[in-house]
Write a structure and sequence with these properties.
Largest sheet: none
Distance between the termini: 44 Å
Shape: globular
Membrane topology: Multi-pass membrane protein
Organism: Bosea eneae
Domain Major facilitator superfamily (MFS) profile: 17-389
Low-confidence stretches: 1-9, 387-393
Order of helices and strands: HHHHHHHHHHHHHHHH
Radius of gyration: 20 Å
Main location: membrane
Pfam family, one: MFS_1
């Protein structure tokens, strides 16, 4: 009993920096997710249609991918903490410009700037999470940081439409800017985080030579394309396929976010069992969830239950994927996290555009079936990653 108590008391605490980074993730995620619910009101104010407005979302995604792929080497040169603060400043300026945009082209340009800043902020956040994690609590710490996606899912999707109805869509961006200033205040001590090499920043694409990274990035691409491809059309399936009101999509997003957040309390088991052995298993579990989704696609209550499990499985898989990538080469961690973010947002584009024709011709269940195949590919790539790293070492 005494030894057990002593071990518990000596267990390292999650650093306060993890909670500040969680808020930063939520800030970036809120911008990614908030536009969908308020799109009709924003389009109306610009006297344009929703499809034209959504070019702003595409601009954000392309900007994020380009920045992460081309500029993430700056993280290793100047330090992740410093890069994060400057990226957040640029991001908040872009959000303020979005809220004040007088016309659609200005709004699209502001979202492109937000994407360029997010492409540096996200890999900086993941790098700092890896640096701040106490030994033996890496997954636990990263789980707290990833909880920011739950905050953005719940607040960004559920509250943005309400705020837009009560105070106008521009207030949504105003509130996010205020929250962003609070997030910046919490990152003050992270300014010097990371190892600043001072050397000229190499292209993050050079990190593709790191042993073991190729299969993990392939797994990331399949994982993210399946998620964004299914998530992009589940709302339309509820409305057109099941005849439900548009608000039904908000409850479904809330269930996903709650499931994603619930897994945070299980992250400590990942550190005990080991990320390398768990990643293929977790990808297989995500595939099983998509398989269940094909069977539940005709029932709204069943879909809500499956989507809650979807959030849980995706959190676990994302946590372990980032841990595996961050451990490949600590000296190039910023570049590696940049590649991860770049692949993620390229997969967003590929998933939303590639799944569309299949959805139009074969329906929502076919999307979930394609996602099953992609997750099997992700599990296979993850299983090969340790052997690839060993072989190249």
């Amino acid at each position: 009993m005494t030894n057990a108590n002593q071990t518990t008391s000596e267990a390292p605490r999650i650093p306060a920096a993890a909670y500040a980074l969680c808020l930063c993730i939520g800030l970036v995620g809120a911008n990614s997710l908030a536009l969908g619910p308020i799109a009709p009101r924003v389009a109306e104010s610009f006297a344009s249609g929703v499809p034209a407005l959504m070019t702003a979302s595409a601009a954000f995604g392309i900007g994020t991918a380009a920045s992460a792929l081309l500029l993430a080497g700056l993280i290793d040169r100047f330090g992740a903490g410093r890069v994060l603060r400057y990226a957040l400043l640029a991001f908040l300026a872009a959000l303020a410009a979005s809220g004040a945009a007088p016309a659609l082209p200005a709004f699209v340009g502001a979202q492109l700037l937000a994407g360029l800043a997010a492409g540096l902020a996200l890999p900086s956040i993941y790098t700092l999470a890896a640096l701040a994690a106490p030994a033996g609590r890496e997954s636990d710490t990263l789980g707290i940081v990833l909880f920011g996606w739950t905050l953005s899912m719940v607040a960004g999707v559920s509250l943005s439409a309400v705020i837009a109805d009560l105070f106008g869509w521009r207030m949504v961006y105003g509130i996010v800017v205020v929250v962003g200033l609070a997030a910046m205040a919490g990152t003050t001590k992270l300014t010097a985080g990371g190892t600043a090499t001072g050397r000229a920043a190499p292209s993050p694409l050079l990190a593709l030579r790191v042993p073991g990274i190729a299969p993990l990035l392939l797994a990331c691409a399949a994982f993210m394309a399946s998620f964004y491809g299914v998530y992009a059309y589940v709302g339309d399936h509820l409305h057109r396929g099941l005849g439900l009101p548009v608000s039904a999509g908000g409850l479904l997003a809330l269930c996903y976010g709650l499931g994603f957040g619930a897994t945070t309390f299980l992250d400590r088991w990942i550190d005990r069992l080991g990320p390398a052995r768990l990643l293929p298993l977790f990808f297989a579990v995500v595939g099983a969830v998509y398989l269940a989704m094909t069977a539940a696609s005709a029932s709204y209550p069943a879909l809500l239950a499956v989507v809650f499990c979807w959030g849980m499985a995706n959190h676990a898989a994302l946590n372990v994927l980032i841990l595996r990538l961050a451990a490949l080469d600590p000296g190039r961690r910023g570049a590696i996290m940049g590649l991860n973010s770049g692949v993620t947002y390229l997969a967003l584009f590929a998933g939303t555009t590639g799944f569309g024709p299949l959805y139009a011709s074969a329906g929502f269940a076919a999307l979930a079936g394609l996602a099953v195949a992609l997750m099997l590919a992700a599990a296979l790539a993850a299983a090969l990653a340790p052997r690839a790293a060993t072989a190249s070492a």
